[in-house]
Amino acid sequence: MLWVKCASPGLRIARKLHTVNKKSNISKIFLATGGLLATGVIGCYLGYRCFKGKDNNSELSPSHFVKYEISHKQDIDSSHFLLELTPLIRQNVNMWSLMTAENLWSVEVKQPEVMVVRSYTPLPLQFNPVSKELEILKDGDNADGKLCFYIKKYENGEVARWLHQLPKDHVIEIRGPFIDYEFPHLPNESKRSRECLYTSRSNTEIPNEDEDSKFTYQPYDIMMFTAGTGIVTALQLLLTESPFRGSIKLFHTSENIQQLGPLNSILLKLQASNRVRLQVFESDKQTRNKILEDIGKAIPRPSSYKGKLPFSSISGRGFEPILALVCGPEGYISSISGRKLDLNQGPIKGLLAAKGWNFENVYKLS
Ligand SMILES: Cc1cc2nc3c(=O)[nH]c(=O)nc-3n(C[C@H](O)[C@H](O)[C@H](O)COP(=O)(O)OP(=O)(O)OC[C@H]3O[C@@H](n4cnc5c(N)ncnc54)[C@H](O)[C@@H]3O)c2cc1C
């Protein structure tokens, strides 16, 4: 994607926000106006910042590139690494409070030598140089604007390979946020706490939570199908400030779970805290078909959302997914949900179609 060819960035976010409205299938099912309202609020806010950007070019914005330095880089294996970027000028806007789990978002990294940009999905994590561990940011903390990424380096790839060989403290430029998927906005809904993720107690000691009773709307459940670095989409929803309120059943496929490095223990903690129902598949060429068969068997039929309900009527409800998000390489998306045609979703086929899922409740992410 040639960044010089892009439409004006101001237009681009407007267009992206417009696309988001069109692509939020879930909004069509319920709370359509809520979804539009959220888009409008974020759109106006970012638009205001784009405008304000004339005298404040240091805040992250879709309309211009902002300088960040590489503050930490950590190899996981020969093709996966973690990258932490710190803005040269601390960010006033806390993207995690602004976006919450209502928006899946990414930023674009500029590779200035070949004039291309690539999208990467930030995670609300920061590297602690003392403990040498990744820490989940707390509510209200944006770590001055630090962003953390999990990246795969392809042998012949331009940007990830270039990023990987850059030294610590090297300055690069990014712009964003770009919203890749928007969930409906639930007005005045309570936040979900992240306290259970900060405890150092062993997984077995973390109590089961039943937070549902504090919400006004029935939290809706979703399924996520991810492969490789596609897992970042699920992690963003689960780790951000005001994380996803419903249950997420996550089918994750990778060659080897060790490829996740420290993200694997974060996933296990999320599972122990009942934030995610995790099913991991380690696959190679020989086992691929068998694994797809196993995933197919585990896919439930879609449920319908009941909206604002007295909680007595939904206590003890099971897993009732109303949306399926699919994120991974082309072949994976094809097998799970039918081919994605560039910017077009393409028809819903594959394993999801076989279980009664359709264009109203499936969304394919790139
Ligand atoms: C919204 C969005 C968010 C993203 N977030 C992340 C992220 O957080 N982490 C991350 O690592 N990547 C992410 N990506 C993918 C990323 O933008 C680049 O496509 C990827 O890093 C490859 O770029 P490259 O320039 O290194 O390789 P390229 O020069 O684009 O391609 C090199 C080779 O790899 C192949 N290839 C490229 N991407 C894939 C793929 N996904 N699966 C299989 N083969 C592929 C190409 O066909 C080519 O043969 C995201 C993409 C989108 C659209």
From TrEMBL:
The chain crosses the membrane at residues 29-48. Its main location: membrane. Pfam families: FAD_binding_6. Residues 63-184 form the FAD-binding FR-type domain. Its cofactor is FAD. PROSITE patterns: FAD_FR. Keywords: FAD, Flavoprotein, Membrane, Oxidoreductase, Transmembrane, Transmembrane helix. FAD binds at R118, Y120, K152, V159. Gene3D superfamilies: Nucleotide-binding domain of ferredoxin-NADP reductase (FNR) module, Translation factors. PANTHER family: CYTOCHROME C MITOCHONDRIAL IMPORT FACTOR CYC2, NADH-CYTOCHROME B5 REDUCTASE. This is Mitochondrial peripheral inner membrane protein. It comes from Saccharomyces pastorianus (Lager yeast). The gene is CYC2_2.
